[in-house]
C-alpha cells in the first residue's frame, strides 16, 4: 500500500470511540492514518480533490477491538454444554478434570498447523463482524512448549488475515494434571521458564492469570505478575468471576491493564481499579453461557469512573460465541450498559485494556482502522443482532470489505 493513498467519506454519522459526534462528518484517511475529520458544513469540496471517494452516509465507528479471547484451541466442549444443561456447574466440571483441562488435552495433541486451521474460521467470524484488533490468549498448553506453540499460532493468524493480533501468555490458567497437588511448583514453572521464554521470543504482549478457587490464589497470581514485571510485560487478570478473592485489587496494585469478568467485584475492588487506571473488562458471553446470576457492579464502576470494555471471551467452554456485535447487545440487555457504553467498550476502552494508544478512536492522527455500517444511528449496533450491516471494514487505511 502506498503511504499516500487517500480515501474520503462524506456525510458520516461518526461514533468516535467514546461518543456520537453531533453532526454529519467528512473523514479523510492518508495511508494508515486518519488525516482529516471535519463537519460537513465546513467541508470545502476542494479538500476532496484528487482523493478517492470511499462512500457517503451511514455510521462510521472505529474498527472493533475484541480485547479478550481464547481463539486458539483444540477440540470443542459441546459435551460439557450438554452436561451443564443437565445440571452440572462449570466449577464442578472443572474439579472433575473436565472444563479447561479437556481443552488442554486436545490442544496439546494438536500441531501448530492444526491449531491454526481450526482458529482461522473463528478469527474470520470476528473479522466479518467488524473486528480489526483481536487479543488472543494462550492457556490451553500449560507446558512451556505448548504455551509457546499457542502463541506462535496466534502470531501466525495475524499474518493470514487483515487484523491486528495482540497476544497474551495465560500460563496460569489451570493446574495441569502432572502438577496435581503442587500448584506452587507449577507457578514456579510459569514464572521461571514460561514467562522468560515467551518474553525472549517476543511471543507475548502481556501476561494474564486466572485468580479463582478453581485456579490460582491471589498470592500465586502475584508471583506471576512479579515475574512479568521483571520481563517488562504488562499484566491483566481473570478475577472475581466465580467468587470474590481480591484478585482485581491485587492486580490493580501491580498496575494491571485490566481486570476481566469481575462479576463478584466489590466496591473496594472498584476503587482499586479506579486508582490504578485499570480497565474493567465485562464479558457478557461467559455470563450468558454459564447462566450466571451475579452481575458485575456496573453502577459502581460508572460512579467511580472506571472505564469499561466489552469482549467476546471467545473460547470453547464458557463463551463459544464468535460475534463481537452480539456482545454489544448482551452487555446492554444483561448488564444494562447503554449502547454508547457498550460501543466505547469495544473501541476506545478496549484499546486501553490492551495498552494501545491511537487505536479504537476516530480522530486526526489515529490509526485508520474503521467500520462503516449500513445503519442510521450507532445505538442500532447494540439494539439489533443482525449480520450483513458491515458495509466496509478498513484495516490500516485499506478497505478489506465492501
Ligand atoms: O475467560 N475463566 C477462565 N477462563 C476462560 C474460560 C476458558 C474455558 O472454559 O475454556 C474464561 O471464561
Ligand atoms: Fe477468558
TrEMBL record:
Zn(2+) binds at residues 68, 70, 238, 313. GO terms for cellular component: cytoplasm. The keyword Transferase does not apply. The keyword Iron applies. It catalyses: 4-imidazolone-5-propanoate + H2O = N-formimidoyl-L-glutamate. Pathway: Amino-acid degradation; L-histidine degradation into L-glutamate; N-formimidoyl-L-glutamate from L-histidine: step 3/3. It comes from the Bacteria. Fe(3+) binds at residues 68, 70, 238, 313. Pfam families: Amidohydro_1. Gene3D superfamilies: Metal-dependent hydrolases, Urease, subunit C, domain 1. Keywords: Cytoplasm, Histidine metabolism, Hydrolase, Iron, Metal-binding, Zinc. Residues 59-383 form the Amidohydrolase-related domain. GO terms for biological process: L-histidine catabolic process to glutamate and formamide; L-histidine catabolic process to glutamate and formate. Its cofactor is Zn(2+); Fe(3+). GO terms for molecular function: imidazolonepropionase activity; iron ion binding; zinc ion binding. N-formimidoyl-L-glutamate binds at residues 140, 315, 317. Its EC number is 3.5.2.7. CDD domains: Imidazolone-5PH. Binds 1 zinc or iron ion per subunit. Belongs to the metallo-dependent hydrolases superfamily. HutI family. Catalyzes the hydrolytic cleavage of the carbon-nitrogen bond in imidazolone-5-propanoate to yield N-formimidoyl-L-glutamate. It is the third step in the universal histidine degradation pathway. PANTHER family: IMIDAZOLONEPROPIONASE, IMIDAZOLONEPROPIONASE-RELATED. This is Imidazolonepropionase. It comes from Modicisalibacter muralis.
Amino acid at each position: 500500500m502506498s503511504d499516500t493513498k487517500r480515501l474520503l467519506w462524506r456525510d458520516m454519522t461518526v461514533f468516535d470511540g467514546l461518543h456520537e459526534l453531533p453532526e454529519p462528518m467528512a473523514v479523510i484517511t492518508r495511508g494508515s492514518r486518519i488525516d482529516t475529520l471535519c463537519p460537513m458544513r465546513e467541508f470545502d469540496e476542494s479538500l476532496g480533490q484528487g482523493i478517492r471517494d470511499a462512500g457517503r452516509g451511514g455510521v462510521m465507528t472505529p474498527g472493533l477491538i475484541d480485547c479478550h479471547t481464547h481463539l486458539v484451541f483444540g477440540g470443542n466442549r459441546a459435551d460439557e454444554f450438554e452436561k451443564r444443561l443437565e445440571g452440572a456447574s462449570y466449577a464442578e466440571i472443572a474439579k472433575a478434570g473436565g472444563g479447561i483441562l479437556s481443552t488442554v488435552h486436545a490442544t496439546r495433541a494438536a500441531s501448530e498447523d492444526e491449531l491454526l486451521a481450526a482458529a482461522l474460521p473463528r478469527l474470520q467470524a470476528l473479522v466479518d463482524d467488524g473486528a480489526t484488533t483481536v487479543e488472543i490468549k494462550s492457556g490451553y498448553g500449560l507446558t512451556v512448549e505448548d504455551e509457546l506453540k499457542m502463541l506462535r499460532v496466534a502470531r501466525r493468524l495475524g499474518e493470514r488475515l487483515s487484523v491486528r493480533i495482540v497476544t497474551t501468555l495465560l500460563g496460569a490458567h489451570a493446574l495441569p494434571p502432572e502438577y496435581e497437588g503442587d500448584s506452587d511448583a507449577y507457578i514456579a514453572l510459569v514464572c521461571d521458564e514460561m514467562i522468560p521464554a515467551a518474553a525472549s521470543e517476543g511471543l507475548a504482549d502481556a501476561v494474564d492469570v486466572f485468580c479463582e478457587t478453581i485456579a490460582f490464589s491471589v498470592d500465586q497470581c502475584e508471583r506471576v505478575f512479579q515475574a512479568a514485571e521483571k520481563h517488562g510485560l504488562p499484566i491483566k487478570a481473570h478475577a472475581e468471576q466465580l467468587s470474590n478473592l481480591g484478585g482485581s485489587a491485587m492486580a490493580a496494585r501491580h498496575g494491571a491493564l485490566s481486570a476481566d469478568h469481575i462479576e463478584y467485584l466489590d466496591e473496594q475492588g472498584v476503587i482499586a481499579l479506579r486508582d490504578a487506571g485499570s480497565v474493567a473488562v465485562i464479558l457478557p458471553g461467559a455470563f450468558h453461557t454459564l447462566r450466571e446470576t451475579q452481575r458485575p457492579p456496573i453502577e459502581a464502576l460508572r460512579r467511580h469512573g472506571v472505564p469499561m470494555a466489552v469482549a467476546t471471551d471467545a473460547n470453547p467452554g464458557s463463551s463459544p460465541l464468535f460475534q463481537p456485535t452480539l456482545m454489544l447487545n448482551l452487555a446492554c440487555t444483561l448488564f444494562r450498559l447503554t449502547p454508547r457504553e457498550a460501543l466505547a467498550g469495544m473501541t476506545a476502552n478496549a484499546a486501553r485494556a490492551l495498552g494501545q494508544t491511537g487505536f479504537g478512536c476516530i480522530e486526526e492522527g489515529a490509526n485508520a482502522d474503521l467500520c462503516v455500517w449500513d445503519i442510521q444511528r450507532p445505538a442500532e449496533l447494540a439494539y439489533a443482532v443482525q449480520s450483513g450491516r458491515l458495509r466496509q471494514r478498513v484495516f490500516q487505511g485499506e478497505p478489506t470489505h465492501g
